[in-house]
Amino acid sequence: MKQKFSLAALLVGTLVLAGCAGFEATSSGDTANEPLENTYWKLVTVGEHQAVTIDEAREAHLVLHAEDARLAGSTGCNRMMGEYERDGDRLRFDRVATTRMACPGELMELEREFLDALGEIASWQVEGKNLTLLDDEGEARARFEAVHLY
């Protein structure tokens, strides 16, 4: 009887550990790359500058809507909209426009750098949850992190 109980306990313990190991591998192991399109990309850096946020302001971000090749987002100060063209790893933004609200100086500077960077983008790279937008020289102009809203 004691031997049957030990065998059952060993079997249950093994199944529990195997289940936990499988869960750990999928939750913190290698993650697949986020899709470029239809993902909320939060701005992390523009050039060498960290993105800044202030209370009661939207964080700088962008979303590329694949269905109609439209750009939507925020500069951290104003709402942003436009169009984009994607061909493989090539990417170009066009007709980017913003609302025209005034914001504190550091947000206006971020907005200017962000919009300038978008005008010089030639390609993109996604590694896991990180998006890098590159210019013609292959230099990183802006870096983003994927954020899941739900």
Describe this entry's structure for a reader.
By secondary structure, this protein is of the alpha+beta class. 28% of the residues lie in helices and 37% in strands. The chain has two helices and nine strands. Strands 1, 2, 3, 4, 5, 6, 7, 8 and 9 form a nine-stranded antiparallel beta sheet that branches. Strand 3 and strand 4 form a beta hairpin. The longest helix is centred in the first third of the chain and has 27 residues. The protein is globular and about 35 Å long. About 16% of the residues have low confidence.
Question: Structural class from helices and strands?
Answer: alpha+beta
Overall geometry = globular
Instruction: Give the percentage of residues in beta strands.
Output: 35-45%
Low-confidence stretches: 5-28
CA-to-CA gap between the ends?
Answer: 50 Å
Give helix and strand order, one letter per element, not per position: HEEEEEEHEEE
Count the DSSP helices. 2
**C-alpha Rg, in Å?**
22 Å
Helix content: 25-40%
Q: What average pLDDT do the residues reach? A: 84
Main sheet record: 9 strands, antiparallel
Number of strands: 9
